[in-house]
Amino acid sequence: MSSSDRLSTPGRERRLLPKVRMDSEVFGSFAEGFARFMGTASFLIWMTVIIVAWIAWNVFAPAAWAIDPFPFIFLTLLLSLQASYAAPLILLAQNRQEARERVSLEHDREVAAQARADTDFLAREIAALRMRIGDLATRDFIRSELRDLLEDLDRGDDKDGKEPRPSR
Questions:
Q1: Rounded to the nearest 5°, which phi and psi values hold at 133?
Q2: DSSP, res 156
Q3: CA–CA dist 146, 137 (Å, integer)
Q4: Does 148 reside within a domain?
Q5: Residue 56 C-beta-side C-alpha neighbours within 13 Å
Q6: Does an H or E element contain 110, and which?
Q7: Domain residues for 42?
Q8: pLDDT per residue over 77-99, tens digit each?
Q9: pLDDT-derived band of residue 118, with 50, 70 and 90 as boundaries?
Q10: In this structure, is the dihedral angle defined by the CA atoms of residues 125, 126, 129 and 134, taken in order, positive or negative?
């Protein structure tokens, strides 16, 4: 197969390095742990102590023992390497956190929608009960009507125009 045939063939993967299979959850958990550790005061304190010790050793140690003389090129390389790994790991941790927040927000929306539907249903039920109760005589209403009737009977009033009843 010639090189022109390979270039015209669609869907062929060309890799310089072999594909590494890794569980994204394991690596994501590692990235989150690393990002969480880098955001602590202890990390900043230890990083500062190491850098100050590195500079002090290379400035005050005899020339034969100095690992990285004054321009501290090796220290710069180490810090650049640390930053080049830290930035993608922190971004990965932030992306995972954003995905979790999105799932949580969607769940909260579903719960809120269900609560709203339940509230609307209960409001309709209460309105229906109020309408039904409005048609029924309440206990207080019946008592007041009976009281009025008893008073009328005691007085001997007859609203129909008939003769009053004798009291017993």
A1: -65, -35
A2: T
A3: 12
A4: yes
A5: 6
A6: helix 73-135
A7: 24-154
A8: 999 999 999 999 999 999 999 99
A9: very high
A10: negative
